[in-house]
Design brief:
The protein contains 18 helices and 27 strands. The protein is an alpha/beta fold. It has 3 domains: about 375 residues, Glycosidases (TIM Barrel); about 200 residues, Class I glutamine amidotransferase (GATase) domain (Rossmann fold), CATH 3.40.50.880; about 60 residues, Sandwich (Immunoglobulin-like). About 50% of the residues are buried. Bound molecules: beta-D-galactopyranose. The site of beta-D-galactopyranose has 9 residues, from loops.
Length: about 675
């Protein structure tokens, strides 16, 4: 019980101590007879939480300021009577047709100047005053009516802010951008300096001359584009906060959240947003065609937990099987549903929810899987859904427990935004690719990862990796330097620490923000041709895509280039800085070469590498007295591992043998005393 106490203070899902299980439920698409059948089936499957109302604005407000709560009253009563709790959605991701007819200026405009129409869903211009007023008005009505409804235990604001579009180039956005810039810079002199507008004669003499960085003849001012990204994330956040505060006025204690897309939303600074939600909630969908999609899932789950500051979080959406919006919507194979759900749970989610309970018959998502597919209760998917519900009902003891990571990866959305702008030294500079490569290598070694912002406290980590950290501001650079000088182990990949807050190259030789800590200077970037590779000496393997003319100042060269434009120059270095170590790799190494490099770094930092059998995911959630170890086998070959001391099977309760075998494509969960 001790694990849960803190969470019961209002920072987490209130109510019963059960793993929350369920998903989005869209009763507006069905008649009452179907609702009754659904509720019966939900109970059978162990569903205890559904998100309702996410796309039902026109049902509750059929005409402006005319409200009709009949359908919500009825369904909430039925769900409540069946002991199924509700996460009530605000419907503001899908404004009604009357809204668009009356407020056409709220339509978003793309960077290319296309004014988007309605008839779908998604964001309006986030800076439209009419939208903000209407969204808060309908939210206020819902909160006033259901703020103390016994079935409504939490609130789900909007849906996936930032998707499918985020930045808008409409007139309202341009005006709001100017106001945001005035707030950030105060004077035009400061803005002109920060944006380096002397370049190509872009100096502004009046605030009204500043536009959104819409498509223009050549590359736009990159600092302006970066600021527009920051502004867009902030404008969307203001929309969230306005709705959240309207709910709070009527529901003072219920947790309020919105669903993130942790590693998959290019437009939102979730580090900033995470401070504004009561509990982090995340949506995750597999990249169906990728055979390593379970690794990407883990990465998303680890980032979700990190955004939550290590506290438990909600898996708000994932799919039982295929989605409908990828080029080839590959169905999940037998057991994959449970493996995916349990991997999120193992990495700290205290709720496992899907999109959606019953598959839609009409509309854009009729070919998307659901807990209850079109094929009904005889389907394999439904049977697996019921089984998972039963399994999760036995894992309540793990609620509130924490995942411990000794190793971190730096994740900076501002840096990713900046690197994604045009005219970089090579198209091969891709932050996502390097993040995935480092994460996947660590995953295969069985190392649990936290993600950190450059300004976060790092001293608790034995090793910190920065696979792509192009933009690093002074605060982040100082923080990283003090981590290393205080005894930390840092490993940095190429093209990191190059620019500051406004995408300006830092003075002197690169990497300006990391030159001292890495003990080197880059004389020149030496990008490689598309298929070119370079050989490294001392057994470090082969590099591709990128190389550099590195001059070591205080670092030691661990490997040099044997071939390519940097032949004879250092390629991989290590610098003793204060009482710590900073490693640098100046080319793109992959596969076994990358794993060997990472293993050396970890070994030097004293991190024990578990090296689980190939495809076996091993993660531990620990409470005060007991810990849950999840063994999830993504390979079709059985794997055998040593059981933790004193372990029992979490699902059957039977004592574990000294060795545990995890069937191919299966899983085992063992509970053991902490220590
Ligand atoms: C999510 C969205 C859901 C549903 C789902 C389908 O991004 O929030 O409403 O569309 O995708 O995969």
């Amino acid at each position: 019980m001790t694990m849960y106490t803190q969470l019961e203070k209002g920072t987490f899902i209130p109510g019963r101590r059960e793993v929350r299980y369920g998903g989005d439920y869209n009763p507006e698409q069905w008649n009452r007879e179907t609702w009754l059948e659904d509720i019966e089936l939900m109970r059978h499957a162990g569903v205890n939480l559904v998100s309702v109302g996410i796309f039902s604005w026109v049902m509750v407000e059929p005409r402006e300021r005319e409200y009709d709560f009949t359908f919500l009253d009825e369904i909430l009563e039925l769900l409540g009577a069946a002991d199924i709790d509700v996460d009530l959605g605000t419907p503001t991701a899908a404004p009604p047709a009357w809204f668009w007819a009356k407020y056409p200026d709220a339509h978003p405009v793309t960077r290319e100047g296309v004014r988007l129409g309605n008839g779908s869903r998604g964001m309006v211009s986030p800076s439209s005053p009419e939208y903000r007023r209407a969204a808060v008005a309908v939210t206020e009505q819902l909160a006033a009516r259901y703020g103390s409804h016994p079935a409504v235990i939490m609130w789900h604001v909007h849906n996936e802010y930032g998707a499918p579009i985020s930045d808008s180039y409409d007139d309202y956005s341009v005006a709001a951008f100017r106001t945001w810039l005035e707030g950030r810079y105060g004077t035009l002199e400061a803005l002109n300096a920060a944006w380096g507008t002397a370049f190509w004669g872009q100096v502004y003499g009046e605030w009204s001359e500043i536009d959104a960085p819409r498509l223009s003849a050549s590359v736009s001012n990159q600092a302006q584009r970066l600021d527009f990204q920051r502004f867009t994330s902030d404008a969307l956040l203001e929309c969230f906060i306005a709705e959240r505060d309207a709910i709070r006025r009527h529901a003072p204690t219920a947790p309020i959240t919105t669903n993130f897309m942790a590693t998959n939303c290019p437009s939102i600074d979730y580090w900033k947003w995470a401070k504004e939600v009561d509990i982090v909630a995340n949506d995750h969908y597999l990249v169906a065609e990728r055979l390593d999609n379970h690794v990407l899932l883990s990465m998303d789950a680890d980032l979700s937990r990190s955004l939550a500051g290590g506290r438990p979080w909600i898996l708000m959406e994932h799919s039982t099987s295929a989605v409908n919006w990828q080029p080839r919507n590959i169905a999940k194979r037998r057991g994959e549903l449970a493996r995916n759900s349990l991997a999120h749970f193992a990495r700290g989610a205290d709720a496992v929810l899907f999109f959606q309970f019953r598959a839609s018959r009409y509309g854009a998502e009729k070919f998307h899987s659901a807990m209850l597919p079109h094929a009904g209760t005889s389907s394999r998917v439904w049977k697996e859904v019921v089984q998972l519900g039963a399994d999760l009902s036995r894992l309540g003891g793990a609620l509130g427990s924490r995942v411990q990571a000794r190793v971190a990866i730096v994740w900076s959305i501002e840096s990713f935004w900046a690197l994604d702008l045009e005219w970089r030294p090579s198209v091969e500079l891709n932050h996502r690719e390097r993040q995935e490569a480092f994460y996947a290598a660590l995953w295969a070694m069985g190392v649990t990862i936290d993600f950190v912002h450059p300004s976060h406290e790092l001293s608790g980590y034995d090793a910190v990796f920065a696979p792509s950290l192009y933009l690093l501001d002074a605060e982040g650079a100082a923080n990283i330097e003090s981590y290393v000088s205080g005894g930390g182990t840092l490993a940095v990949s190429y093209f990191s620490g190059i620019v500051g807050t406004n995408d300006e190259v830092l003075p002197g030789a690169s990497p300006g923000a990391l030159r001292e800590v890495l003990g080197l200077e880059i004389q020149e970037f030496l990008p490689l041709r598309e298929t070119e590779t370079v050989v490294l000496d001392n057994g470090f393997g082969t590099g591709s895509a990128w190389s550099e003319d590195v001059l070591v100042t205080s670092a030691e060269a661990l490997a040099s280039y044997e071939s390519g434009p940097a032949a004879g120059q250092p390629a991989i270095t290590r610098n003793r800085h204060g009482s710590g170590d900073a490693w640098y790799v100046s080319t793109k190494i992959d596969g076994a070469d990358l794993s060997a490099f990472i293993a050396q770094v970890l070994e030097s930092a004293g991190v024990v590498i578990g090296a689980p059998p190939a495809g076996l995911e091993v993660v531990t959630r620990a409470g005060d007295t007991e810990q849950y170890t999840f063994f999830i086998n993504h390979s079709s070959d059985a794997a055998t591992v040593a059981s933790p001391t004193g372990a029992r099977d979490a699902l059957t309760g039977s004592a574990a043998a000294p060795e545990t075998t995890i069937p191919g494509d299966g899983f085992r969960i063992l509970v053991s005393p902490v220590g």
